[in-house]
Amino acid sequence: MTKTAPFIKQLTVIILTIILLLPLNACTTATATNIAPSDIIYQQRTVHNPDGTGKFYMGREIARVMGYEGASWLERPSRGMEEKSARLVNNLDLKPTDIVADIGAGTGYFSFRIAPLVPEGKVFAVDLQPEMINFIELNKQEKNIANVEPVLGSIDNPNLPENSVDLVVMVDAYHEFAYPREMMQGIVKALKPGGRTVSIEYRGENPMIPIKGLHKMTQQQVKKEMAAVGLVWKETKDMLPQQHLMVFEKQSQI
Ligand SMILES: C[S@@+](CC[C@H](N)C(=O)[O-])C[C@H]1O[C@@H](n2cnc3c(N)ncnc32)[C@H](O)[C@@H]1O
Hints:
35% of the residues lie in helices and 25% in strands. By secondary structure, the chain is α/β, with parallel strands linked by helices. Strands 4, 5, 6, 7, 8, 9, 10 and 11 form an 8-stranded mixed β-sheet that branches. It is globular and about 90 Å long. Residues 65-66, 74, 103-106, 109-110, 126-129, 132, 153, 155, 171-173, 176-177, 183 line the site of S-adenosylmethionine.
């Protein structure tokens, strides 16, 4: 009894230790394998800008999506003068046969201005909010413009056919994408080889532009994020009063 007692005690300690460690080990493995790629690409922070989502991508906080309640602001009569919308469209270097995708189209403000310049092509007007798609449908009937096709996108996918688009336009929209990496990968897939993406964002370098900070972007940040999906910067046109118009190209080998 006195000889076996310490041995039994030792054995009990070893068995108990193994039992305690087993689930701990299993748990650690599960945590490691459960890390989705998006957890590495994005970071969620509790301290953040109240206009933002608390989700960060490549050092930038992603802005909140502008709700469909703001549709009338997108269509405000003063917009053309303030933002020089006609100048923007004329600088897209469109060809009559171009297939264009206006991503984050909202009410279709730009889709319907682009459509007459691509009479043998068309404009996919992509938005995430079904209410915006309804506005686009209504505008399409009212303006009687046949070559605008509304497309309901999803949070991480523009839902466009592969290799189908000559030009992607994103006006004041990209900074709101909740999954910018996945959206841009979908956009790159949708572009034809040699196709172009034009990013138009309020200038983040200029504090005098009266737009909330997260709704502006610097050229440096846009270039970094487009390079992450293989797009090559071609030029920046600075002829708009408040925004950069930045042109990127899909290389044939992507
Ligand atoms: C500020 S509005 C700009 C609308 C339009 N480009 C214009 O300038 O009139 C941004 C739009 O992007 C849309 N949006 C945000 N994230 C999106 C996503 N992942 N896919 C498609 N649309 C998105 C929003 O629903 C909203 O209509």
